[in-house]
Amino acid sequence: MGNASSKNNGKALGLLLEKVYRGGGYDFRDYKRGTVTRRLQRRLYATGATSYEEYTHFLESHPEEYKNLADDLTIKVSGFFRSSQTFQQVARLVLPRLVAHKIKRGERSLSLWSAACARGEEPYSIAIMLADFLGSQLAEFDISIHASDINRQALAEAEAGIYLPKEVESLPPPTLANHFSRNGEGYTVNSNIRHMVSFSYFDLTLATPPPFTAIDCAFCCNILIYLQRQLQEKVLNLVYDSLTTPGYLVLGEVETPPDTLRSRLECINAKAKIYKKV
Ligand SMILES: C[S@@+](CC[C@H](N)C(=O)[O-])C[C@H]1O[C@@H](n2cnc3c(N)ncnc32)[C@H](O)[C@@H]1O
Questions:
Q1: Distance (Å) from CA 75 to ligand 1 centroid
Q2: Across the chain, what does the average pLDDT equal?
Q3: What domains can be seen in the chain, in order of their start residue?
Q4: Are 44 and 55 within 8 A, CB to CB?
């Protein structure tokens, strides 16, 4: 099994990914090939296929395998306040401006988007950050945090909002005490935080515009790194177009925005890659 990729050339892989797109609706054609081939090996192993061709045939007779493949090809590793620096800078540089802007216009609604939310740690961290920032003013605001992903397993776990002790251990004790409840062996996100977040399936790579518009602040973190440059630009354009003006884009420390987008973004913080739509 381990040498399946050596038996198969790039053409066979290209044909397989084309099949996955046409048959399953998942577009991994422009993901970085290294990650895709490594992860595909798992599915070949799980299904007993010894080559990409065999796996392609397996997909034809087992359409439920498309979902397993999509779940395995996507990397759902995340964490609460995964990049603490990024969240600190959003709380310091974005939230005060955003809230002041809303108050000045007599508005009390805030709309945010976690564009690749994995198991929910990112959108719940955004909700916690907002709750802590707004304090007693929280009840005056109508907050919608849209959280989307293509990993259905991750979305189901995110919706449940239950985490293992090791998944919350990096949180400061007051954050854990204020926003989580002990639930048997695990911790559940408190309902006031959960009610701010709504989860849905949305594929960033398809040309369909997102159902979320007029977004005040979009988080698109640790997803572009898996995509080839051209697809990164397509995804970022889509996220950019969902923003209102002024709207903020948070890419986090790992990502690098393509040059083509830089002229349309004002850099607010270079390290955390926080931008404002201009
Ligand atoms: C490494 S996690 C990042 C989670 C979170 N944003 C963070 O920074 O911790 C990458 C997520 O991107 C999701 N993903 C991959 N391709 C996607 C696509 N085309 N549309 C939406 N989400 C996608 C994966 O399912 C996975 O949950």
A1: 7
A2: 93
A3: 4-73 (1.10.155.10), 84-277 (3.40.50.150)
A4: yes
Q: Which atom of ligand 1 is nearest to the CA of 121?
A: 9
Cβ neighbour number for residue 177 with a 10 Å cutoff: 10
Question: If pLDDT is split at 50, 70 and 90, which confidence band does 261 have?
Answer: confident
Question: Which residue's entry shows tokens 């759902």?
Answer: 76
Q: Is the CB of 95 under 6 A from ligand 1?
A: no
C-alpha distances in angstroms, 239 versus 34, 91, 113, 172, 270? Answer: 25, 21, 9, 31, 19
Cα 234 to Cα 86: distance, rounded to the nearest angstrom: 23
Query: What whole-number distance in Å separates Cα of residue 211 and Cα of residue 12?
Result: 35
The b/e string for 109-139 (b: 16+ C-beta within 10 A; e otherwise) is: ebbbbbbbbbbbbbbbbbbbbbbebbeeeee
Question: So what's the pLDDT on residue 94?
Answer: 98
266 contacts 276 by C-beta, under 8 angstroms = yes
CB contact set of 151 (below 8 Å; sequence gap of 6+) = 70, 71, 74, 76, 118
* pLDDT at residue 240 tops 60: yes
CA proximity to 85, closest of 252, 223, 267, 276: 252
- With the most atoms of ligand 1 within 8 angstroms of its CB, the residue from 21, 84, 204, 223 to mutate is 223
The predicted-structure confidence for 153-168, as pLDDT tens digits, reads as follows: 999 999 999 999 999 9
CB distance 204 to 235 below 8 Å: yes
Residue type, 194: R
The answer to whether the CB of 250 is under 6 A from ligand 1 is no
Residue 215 near ligand 1, beta carbon < 6 Å: no
